Amino acid sequence: MSVNLIFKIAAVGILVSVLSQVLKHSGREEHAFLTSLAGLILVLFWILPYIFDLFQTIKDLFML
Fold first, then answer.
1. Predicted model pTM
2. DSSP states of the chain as a string?
3. Is the pLDDT reported for residue 1 higher than 80?
4. Which UniProt keywords are given for this protein, alphabetically ordered (predicted)?
5. Any idea what the Cα angle at residue 19 is, between residues 31 and 25, rounded to 5°?
6. How many domains is the chain partitioned into structurally?
7. Using N-to-C axis directions, what is the helix angle for 29-62 and 3-25, rounded to 10°?
8. 27: left (phi over 0), alpha (psi -120 to 50) or beta
9. How far apart are CA 13 and CA 18, in angstroms?
10. Residues spanned by the domain of 48
11. What is the pLDDT of residue 2?
C-alpha cells in the first residue's frame, strides 16, 4: 500500500467532514448523510483490491 492512498483517504475524509457539517448547518441532513455515504463507498472501492490481496495471501498461507 502506498502513502499516496493514505493521503487520498485522509483528503476525502476531511472534505466529506467539512461538506457534511456545512450541509447539516444549512438544514439538509439527508444530503449530509448521502455525502458521507458516498465518501465511504469511494474509499471502500479504493481499498477493496488490498482487502482481496490480504484474503488471498491468508488463503495461500493456510493451503500449504
1. 0.80
2. --HHHHHHHHHHHHHHHHHHHHHHHTT-HHHHHHHHHHHHHHHHHHHHHHHHHHHHHHHHHHT-
3. no
4. Membrane, Transmembrane, Transmembrane helix
5. 70
6. 1
7. 160
8. left
9. 9
10. 3-62
11. 85
Distances (CA, A) of 17 to 23, 24, 57: 10, 10, 34
| Grid cell at residue 46 | 479504493
pLDDT tens figures, 19-34? 999 999 999 999 999 9
**For residue 64, is pLDDT > 90?**
no
> What would the grid cell of residue 41 be?
463507498
Closest CA to 10 of 53, 46, 51, 49: 46
Q: How far apart are CA 41 and CA 39, in angstroms?
A: 5
